[in-house]
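It is worth pausing here to work through a concrete case rather than discussing structure prediction in the abstract. The textbook approach is simple: state the sequence, then state the predicted structure, then interpret. We follow exactly that order.
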Amino acid sequence: MTDRRFSVPDLARRLLAPIAALLGLVAGLSVLILPSPAPTTADPTTFSAERAMASINRLADEPHSVLRREAHDRARDDVIGMFANLGYTANVHSDPLFDFSIPEDKETFDMLSTEQQAAVKDATADTIVVDVPGKSERTMALMAHYDSATVEGTENDEQSYSSGTSHGAADDGYGVAAIIETLRAIKAEGRQPENSLKIVITDGEEIGLVGARNEMRHHRADYDNVDLFLNLEARGMSGPAFMFETSPNNSAVAGYFLSHVKQPVSSSLLPSLYARMPNTTDMAKVIPEGFTVLNIAAIGEADHYHHATDAPRYVNHSTLQHYGDQVLDLTRAWAFDGQTPTLTANGDLHFFQLWRGMTVSYPATVGTGLGCLAIIAALGVVVVRARSLRWKRVLGTVWGLTWRAASVSAAAGLVQLGAMAMKWAPETGIGPNPLLPWMFAGGALIGAGLTAHFVVRRWKEGLGQETLAAVLLLLAAACVPLMVLLPGAAYVLVLPTLTLALTALAPQRVRPVVGALAAFIMVVIFAPTVLLIHELLSLSAVWVTVFFAIVPVAPLALVLLQAGSRRTRSATARTSSSSDAVPDGAATAGRAAATA
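Step two, the predicted structure:
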């Protein structure tokens, strides 16, 4: 007769890891919580999104791309007027919009219609510059652009330009408004800055980064004292304003940013991933000149990007507040600290956030060491159990996990292509797409469910060790190319791999605690990252984001199963060579319950 009993310690052991995973979810998602927008009556030395909205309403009252010359000139004058209202005189650098000695300019010009060419052939790109002198000539430059989008389309596989329907409320009204309101708050301090500021509002960004290029080409000497560029962009309307790009060797500047911004939302995954993406901003013209750079942008609701709905009525005031809080924190630290450190370095920083306001960071060399340790630990677990493993079942588990993730991801991609073909979703990804969250969520949930069911079933069948070996081998194999190609992003797989391996190696008496820590780390890393990847890539490649959302399910399920399992006499007696030859699977544990 079998008598199954659960003591309080046993129940606590089983619940410890799931509770830690839940806490990891809360902590990870807390990073994405936005501040409440400050009202117009807020302290004048603070950033107010409601005050900043006045700048957006003024700039983005109409589409104003460089191909809409009258509206474009009104937008330029509006920005100049914003500075005048603060008591600053703006200098306008008027340089050619198209320099036909540059092949890229000639190629872009040839894409325009005859009417468009006539309108802009002799036009200038008018970049607006304001200098705020400090006691020191060391300068921080704040940069954004004021032209709105020239929408790119495809006709017979050839790129074409239109005059654009976007009002530029986010792209780049967020940037312009954040800078204007920040400058107003700095001036409200009533004291001269220790270090200098330079405000640069470029023109022609949307048609080839023209304004930034002209600054570096025709006015390079004006920037000799600039120690730091802070660029503000937007690829969406909502969500956090991510710090997504740095210049190379970023350990000093990334550390400076993280130490002075109260609520940063960033990780070293973003600069690593962005460097591999085709998107560009004005910083593509600045970084090659050797400048130290930080780049910030919101990416939520990216279906508004370059679309008519990028208009003031769709502005997310909390997102604008998050822009401003970060920009003002950093600008104030620079302006009023006479001991600002040098922001150049010889290495990169790896960093991610544990929860809102708390960031973990370490040098890239430590990241490499952690990666090597994770791979060694993962392979060590497999080697220790190699003799007792049924390798055919290991390979079967690898195949089972792979085809489930691949087939669900491919299905999500086909659904997206079908929706585009049926005109239910915009073919270019530009424009509102209410189906997009459902495509992602549906694919992710189905894939996660199939994967979790597969892992639990293998565990119950007494194949826990084979499943563990398969997952560790897959993770170790994925860590290697990630460490080589995207070293700043490697922590996303390295730390879960290491914690899963340590859970497997931990003695049974401490495994619940080690498993709880592993579950927390996995979820706190993956929860915000999955959502970030979704925002970055789902517009055109939802299959990639669905696949990435499935990746953490198997290792997390194994951590929870191991942390909650109980070693029993029957499980111990099942093999004479190793007490862990078959893990504490549910089938073994069920047969090995205390016998009366």
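Step three, interpretation. The chain has 20 helices and eleven strands. Residues 511-550 form the longest helix (40 residues).
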